[in-house]
Task: structure prediction
Amino acid sequence: MNARPDVIPPQPWAFPEPTRHVLGNGISLVAYDIPGQYVVSVRTVLPLPLSAEPREVEGIAAITSRLLDEGTARHTSEEFAELLERKGIALGAGMTDSGLSVDLDVPKRRLSEALDLLRQTLADPVFPQAEVTRHLKTRLAEIEQERAMAPHRAAREFIATFFDGSDRASRPSAGTAESVSAITREAIVDFHRRLIGPQGMTVVIAGDLSGLDVGALADEQLGGWQSQAQERVEGSAEPPRRSPEARRIVLVDRPGSVQSELSVGCAGPDRRVEGGWAAYPVLAFVLGGSPSARVDAVLREEKGYTYGIRSGFRPRRRGGLFLTTGSVRADSTVESVRLLLEILESGREGFAEDEVRAGVDFISKTAPGRFATADAVADEAATLALDGLTTEFTTGNLTAMQDLDSDALVRAYSRWADGEWTVVVVGDASLYAEQLKELGRGDVTVVPN
Amino acid sequence: MPLDYPIHEKTLANGLRVVVSPDTSVPNVTVNLWVNVGSRHESPGRTGFAHLFEHLMFQGSRNVASGEHFARLMAEGGRLNATTWFDRTNYFETVPRGAYELALWMEADRHGHLLDAVNQENLDNQRDVVKEEKRQRYDNVPYGHALIETYAAVFPPEHPYHHPTIGSMEDLDAASVEDVHAFFRRFYGPNNTVLTLVGDLTPEEGFAAAERYFGPLPASAEPPRGNVDQLGPLTEPVRVERVEDVPNDRLHVAFRMPVDNTEEYFAASLALDVIGGLGTSRLVQRLVRREQVANAVQAHSMGFVDGVSLGFIVLDIADGQDPDEVESRAVEELERFAAEGPTAVEMESALAQAERSWLHALASQEERADAISQHVLLHDDLQFINTYLDRLTAITAAQVQAAAERWLQPHSRAVVAHLAEAEEEAA
Result:
C-alpha cells in the first residue's frame, strides 16, 4: 500500500464574469459564456412579492405562471407544446416568495427560436378557459398529494406555526384549496396584465455562446415587448412577522406512521444580514450538511435513527428561516427531538478549528464544480437577480469565508438560534404527545393530517 | 451531431479497466467506479445485500477510519456518494485536481482492504440506517411500493429483477459479518470493476495514478456469470390491486422491454416516449388535455442487461374518474400506436427531447464519467457517450412501430393499481 498522498490546495476561484446588456424595453440581460456547454440555459426572473396577490385568490401568481405556455395569441396550447417539443426545448415556470421565474433549456442552435417562444409565453398568453379549469383542478389534486407526503405536510405546518397568521408567509405560496377554488380566468388575465411585464425583469443566458451575438439576439426576440399596464409592487421592507406562539411543538397526527417527519426551525438571515452571509452556508454544513456533520454523526452514524437529516438557511428577500428537516424511526421520535435541539444549540458554544476549516473548504472548494454547468450558473444568477443581487455576491462570500473562525460563526449563529424553536412532527401523535411535552420546549398541539 | 469527448482506455494487469477523459474546463477530477454487482446478483433470502454492503464501504477500511471517507474528501472540496441499482454499484467523487490522488488512494483502500474494518457494530448501525432509508423512500410515502410491486408483477419469481434493490428487511436482519466477508470476496476486486477519471488530467497522469493505487490489488473477484437470456413480453395481462390511503387512484402500466444498448431497446423507448413520455405524448394529449380524466401521465424506460428491460406508464387518475375506464382508453392508444407507429412530428419531437436531455446529462463531468463507466462495465462500449445520439437518430419510424407491436401491446401489460380507500373506510 502506498503512503496516503498529500493534497495540493486549489487556486482561489471566482464566479464566471458575465456580459451585461439592457434590451430596448429595459429588460436586463446577463450572459455567461461557458465553452463546451452545448445546452443553453435561459432564466427569466421578475421580482414580485406574493403580497401582490389578492387575499381571496392566493395562488393566482403560481397558476398564472403555469398557464403562460398553455395557449398564446398565435398558438393553441397543443400547438405550443408541440413547438417546444420539436425544438428540444424544456420550459418551466413557477413562483416563489421573491417572484416569477420562467426557465428554459435548449440546444444552442435553437436558442433564437426558443427566445421567440419565451417572449410569446410572457407577452401573449391568452389563458383559454379550458386550460384554466384544468390547471385549477390539477393544483387542487396537487394540494391533496402534498398533504399525503410527510415532508410537504411538515413544511406547510411549519410556516403556519412559525409565521403570524396575518402574514402571507404563513400560507402556501401556491395557494390553498379554498383560495385556488376562487380563482377565475378574469382574475388571471387581470393579474397578468397588471403585474407581468418587462420592467424590472432580468434574463440570464448561460452556455456555450461562441459565435452568437447574444445581446442582439435577445434584443430582437425579447426587447420589443412592451406593457403599458405593468404596475410595480414593492415588497415589504420588513421580514415576515413571527407568530407570538411560534415556540411550541405541533404534532400532525398520522396514526400508525412508521416514521416521524421532523421540521425544526427558527428565524434566519437574509442575504443582506449584518456581519455578512458567508458564515451561514458554513454553519449549515457543520451542523447538518453531511453524514459527518454534528446532527448525523449522532442521529445517523451513532444511533441509526435516520437515513439523514439536513440543515439549511433559507433566505427570503427580507428575513429568512433556519430549518432542519428529516425523518426518524417512529419509536425514536422523542429522543430524536431532544438530541436534535441539543445538537443545534451546541452551535452557540463554539466550533472546533477543524470543523470550521472543513466547512469553509467544502463550500469554497466545491464551488468550481457546483457552478461548472450552464444550468447551475444560470440558476445562481437568477436566484440572486430576484433578490436584486449579482453573482459578485457569490464570489464575495467565497472570499469572506476564508477569514471565518469559531468566534465569527458563533456570533453569526447566535443572532438567530436563541433556543426558541418551532418544532413540527408529522407522525403518530397518540404515542408521543405526552413525552414531547416533558421536553419543556413549549406547548404541544395536536392537529389532524 | 457527432460528439467527440476524448476517451482513453487501459486495462491494468489485475483486470481493472481504466478510462480517462480529459476536460480542463474546470480544475476538478471526477473519480467514478462501477462494480459489477447489484441486486440482480442476489439470491432469494439474501436480498438487499448489495445495497447494505455499499453503506459499509463508508464505514472504514484498512487505513481509513469509519466515516473518514465522507469527512476527509468533503473537507478537501469533494462531492461524493455511492448508489446501488439492479445491475451494479457505483462509487464516485468529484474533487479539486490536487486531491484526486487522495481520492484514488481512499478508493483503493476500501475496494481492496475493506474487510479489515468491518465489524458487528458497523453492520448493526448501517442495517438500522438502511431500514430508515426504506421507510423514508418506500413505506412512509403514498404509492411508495408501486415500483416494487411493478417489478414483482412484470418479472417472474427468482428472475434477477423480480425483487427491488432495497431488498427485504428480514433478509438484512439475517445478514452476518461472515456474509459480508463472503460477498466482498466474491464480487469486489479490480477484475470486476471499471474506473473512470474525467477532468483536469492527462491520460498518462490518470493511468499512472490508477496503476499506483489500484495496481497492487490482486484480481480477487470471482469471474462474473454471463447475462441471462432475453425474456419475451408477458403473454397475458397481469393485475395487482392495492386499496390504500392515497389521495387519488394511480395506475402503473408496465411492460417487459428488450435489453439495453440495442436498436430494439432504443426503438421501444422512443415508442414509450411518444405514447406517454413527452409533453405532447398521445396519452397526455388525450387523457390530460382533452378528456381531462387524468391529472398527469408519465412514462419511463429503465434499461437493464440481464435479459430484459422495463418500461412503464404512470396514469394519475383525476378525481371522480373511473380508473378502469381511463385504463381502457390508454389501452386503445396502445393498440393504435402498435398498429400505426409514430408520425413524423412525433419522431422529431422524441429525438429532439432525447438530444437535449443527453447533451444536458453530458454537460457535467460527474454524469459523463458515470455514463462512461456504465457502458464500459455493462456493454464493453467505450465510445457510447459519443455515438449514442447518432445511433438513436438512425432509428426509423418503422423500427419504433415494430418495437411497440412486439413489446408494448395491451395484452403484454402488467397493471399495478393503487386505489384510494372510500371515504367511510378511511375514517
Notes: Chain A touches chain B through 78 residues (CB under 8 Å). Chain A has two domains: 19-222, 248-448.
